[in-house]
Amino acid sequence: MAKYDYDLKKLVVEAYQQGKGGYGTLARQYGIPADSTVHKWVKIVEKLGFDALHRRKNNQTYSFQFKQDVIHYYLTSGDSYLAVALKYGLSSGALLQHWHQLFLHEGIEGLLPKMKGRPSMTKKKQTPKKWATREQELERENELLRAELAFIKKLRALGMTIPDRLKSETHESSTNSEKSSD
To answer: Where is the composition biased (Polar residues) (predicted)?
Structure first.
């Protein structure tokens, strides 16, 4: 995907706002392969202003609940990725598409924050794990199952189809916790 600088994006959007052409005309005039790119820039500026056209230098993190709300709205509204992303203040529909794919493949757990970086390479004497206790693990699993159940109930209430992996009687997380209790 080609990266365009802020000045070009601003120039194209201003030309559109001044009525100097439509999406296709401006795309050809400025050497942009797809008129949908110009359309996206215009919609972003209309909703979030010109500052949203800047490339972000740092990655923003979003909470689990925020991701769940955005995915729920996307599934129930029927709006496009870009429309939902702009409604929630995201400057790109690609991020929402990524979250949706994670949800489809991994379920609600796919939206949880991931550990960053490489694990430590130092060899230490085996010490008891500082991870969560058995009770904390069960509480976390319980919380995830409650969230998943609430999501399934919302899908049923809206008359939407429930993905097959959510219909199974035994969940991977519950079978994994039973194995780890040995």
So the answer is: 173-182
H-helix segments, the chain = 6-17, 23-29, 35-48, 64-77, 81-87, 93-106, 134-157, 164-167, 172-180
The answer to whether the beta carbons of residues 163 and 106 sit under 8 Å apart is no
- Residue 158's Cβ-side half-sphere holds a number of Cα atoms within 13 Å equal to 16
Q: DSSP states of 91-139 as a string? A: S-HHHHHHHHHHHHHHGGGGGSPPPPSPPP----------S--HHHHHH
Alpha-carbon 132 to chain mean position: 27
pLDDT in tens, the chain (182 residues): 457 888 888 888 888 888 888 888 888 888 888 888 888 888 888 877 777 776 666 677 888 888 988 988 888 888 888 888 888 887 678 888 998 898 888 888 888 887 777 877 776 655 555 566 888 888 888 988 898 888 888 888 888 777 777 676 555 544 444 444 44
How far are the Cα atoms of 92, 122, 123, 171 from residue 119, in angstroms, in the given order? 31, 9, 11, 28
